[in-house]
Specification:
Largest sheet: 10 strands, mixed
Order of helices and strands: HEEHEHHEEHEHEEEHEEHEEHEHE
Bound molecules: threonylcarbamoyladenylate, magnesium ion
Radius of gyration: 20 Å
Shape: globular
Distance between the termini: 53 Å
Strand content: 15-25%
Structural class: alpha/beta
């Protein structure tokens, strides 16, 4: 039996699998099986009020689960699927209420990963799948991260290598008169507007009115376990002076550096007392790809706290800023 066949068999009998996508790894179960869905919430420690998105092979399969399939949905799917865009639409009853936390709508997306697309074609259904982390913790971007988060509580983990995008999909609500972005992510609002015209953006984190619109959008999320603080680029020198002057500075710091192309993880000379210095590139795509793995390393080190330099408040950084605003408090 191939790994895909095993995964399909597990899903058919109500089991749970870890699966790769281009954004982050998911924790998957059959979206039409109430018992299997309940297990997802237990394993993640997720509040039952936070709905799950459903993964499908393509738009044709999505139409089997959406109560309505407006023309804008088709246009968006044509351009962005498979890819990091989740469409919120009215749901068909076959998607069990536990998936959508009792809402009449469901989030649907076709993920851009060859292994999972093969799985979805074989499964020929809807795979409910939140990110494969314990609730509110950092999302996993490798199969190893899924093992660290969920271990034996999943029946199988499909290893598809490190995730290319590295942060979650954009969630777009198509049930409103004007489509509304509930969560910025792998597809930018500019890219979406080029296809369907104006969309509403839910304002940047910190605006509390936001929490009510998307049940999962609580302020603290995507968080390291250690206390994590953010600082503006303008405060960088001051923070670095504190970091370098005090060998007992018990924090690690994550910087942005235009001269860095890949990721700079601490070499020995960068290691100052218990604090570690990490550097990510000043390019949003490369930064996003490496963000969660870096935050995990910072969480594992000996430092007591994590300090993160914020990227500029520009549209191209919207998704990264959203995750950092949830992961950290102001310094
Ligand atoms: O990239 C992703 O979207 C990843 C991969 C695994 O596909 N999945 C993911 O799932 O991030 P999760 O459950 O961690 O986040 C889904 C988000 C939550 O913020 C949830 O509240 C929102 O989508 N959501 C899901 N269904 C919704 C609905 N019917 N209405 C409004 N928001 C919804
Ligand atoms: Mg999540």
């Amino acid at each position: 039996m191939s790994e895909i066949e095993r995964a399909v068999a597990i899903l058919r009998r109500g089991g749970l699998i870890g699966f790769p996508t281009e954004t982050v790894y998911g924790l998957g179960a059959n979206a039409t099986n109430t018992k299997a869905i309940e297990r997802i919430f237990v394993v993640k420690g997720r509040p039952s009020t936070n709905p799950l998105i459903c993964h499908v092979a393509d738009a044709e399969v999505a139409r089997r689960y959406a109560g309505e399939w407006p023309e804008v949905a088709q246009r968006l799917a044509d351009v962005f699927w498979p890819g990091p865009l989740t469409l919120v639409l009215e749901k068909k009853p076959v998607i069990v209420d536990e998936v959508t936390a009792g809402l009449s709508t469901v989030g649907l997306r076709a993920p851009d990963h060859p292994l999972t697309l093969e799985l979805l074609r074989e499964f020929n259904g809807a795979l409910a799948g939140p990110s494969a982390n314990r609730s509110n913790h950092i999302s996993p971007t490798t199969a190893e991260h899924v093992r660290e988060e969920l271990g034996e509580r999943v029946d199988l983990i499909l290893d598809g290598g490190p995730c290319r995008v590295g942060i979650e999909s954009t969630v777009l609500d198509l049930t409103q008169r004007v489509p509304r972005i509930l969560r910025p992510g792998g597809v930018s609002n500019e890219e979406i507007e080029e296809v369907i015209g104006a969309v509403e953006m839910v304002s940047e984190m910190g605006d509390t009115s936001r929490a009510a619109m998307s049940p999962g959008q609580m302020a603290r999320h995507y968080s390291p376990r250690k206390p994590a603080y953010r600082f503006a680029h303008a405060d960088r020198e001051r923070v670095l002076q504190e970091f370098e002057a005090d060998p007992t500075a018990r924090f690690s710091v994550l910087l942005i550096d235009a001269t860095v192309r890949g990721v700079m993880f601490p070499a020995d000379e960068n290691r100052l007392g218990p604090g570690w210095k990490f550097t990510l590139p000043a390019a949003p795509v490369a930064y996003a790809r490496n963000l969660y793995a870096t935050l995990r390393l910072m969480d594992e080190g000996d430092a007591d706290a994590i300090y993160v330099e914020m990227p500029p408040n520009d549209a191209e950084w919207a998704a990264v800023r959203d995750r950092l605003l949830r992961a950290t408090r102001p310094l």
